[in-house]
Amino acid sequence: MEMTSTQRLILANQYKLMGLLDPANAQKYTRLETIVKGGFSLELKELDNEFLAISEAECQTVLETLEMYHALQVSYENLADKSDLTAHRLQFIGYDAIRERKYLNYLRFITGIEGKYQEFMRCAHGCDSQTPMWDKYNKMLDVWKACPHQYHLSLVEIQNILNA
């Protein structure tokens, strides 16, 4: 992380204030203040990890994934014969909190702060899938987008999407 001396001073002062405002975490903030003041490049990389960047295309993919799951659930509810498919299979499980943190953070922003797709916050572990899901969701999206009626899916189309 590249910072000017002024930026380092401002950030160090913010960590000092955070330590005073949050005594339970004062040791953590003192450590961060020391790292910033000292300009310790190796440890400053830790701070970079706190600032994730998610592209517009990645945001759009997360939103499309949520919309696809919405379409899957609506289509499932409209099926006359649900015997070959359980509602559990249609449950959105989220993103991996370690390897897909930026997607999970965006998901939580969309559902928590923006209040959209509230039905997806029923996923276990705060929507931490505990396994990477990005590639799986992209394959599912490809199949869903190829369906002629994306919100009126047949049982076979739903199964094809889930099995992508």
Estimate the strand proportion. under 5%
- Got a strand count? 0
Tally of distinct domains: 2
Query: Could you spell the SSE succession in H and E letters?
Result: HHHHHHH
Question: What's the CATH C level of the largest domain?
Answer: Mainly Alpha
CATH superfamily caption of the largest domain? yfbu gene product, domain 2
How large, in whole angstroms, is the Cα Rg?
21 Å
Which term fits the overall shape?
elongated
Provide the CATH architecture of the largest domain. Orthogonal Bundle
Mean pLDDT: 91
- Let me know the largest β-sheet: none
Structural class: mainly alpha
Helix fraction bin: 55-70%
CATH topology title of the largest domain: yfbu gene product, domain 2
**Would you identify the regions where 5 or more consecutive residues have pLDDT less than 50?**
none
Write the layout of secondary structure elements.
Blueprint: H1 5-21, H2 26-38, H3 41-50, H4 56-78, H5 101-113, H6 134-146, H7 155-162
Write up this protein.
The protein has about 160 residues and is mainly α. The protein has 2 domains: about 5-50, Helix Hairpins (Orthogonal Bundle), CATH 1.10.287.680; about 55-160, yfbu gene product, domain 2. The protein is about 60% helix and about 0% strand. It contains 7 helices and no strands. The protein has helices at about 5-20, 25-40, 40-50, 55-80, 100-115, 135-145, 155-160. The protein is elongated. The protein starts with a helix and ends with a helix.
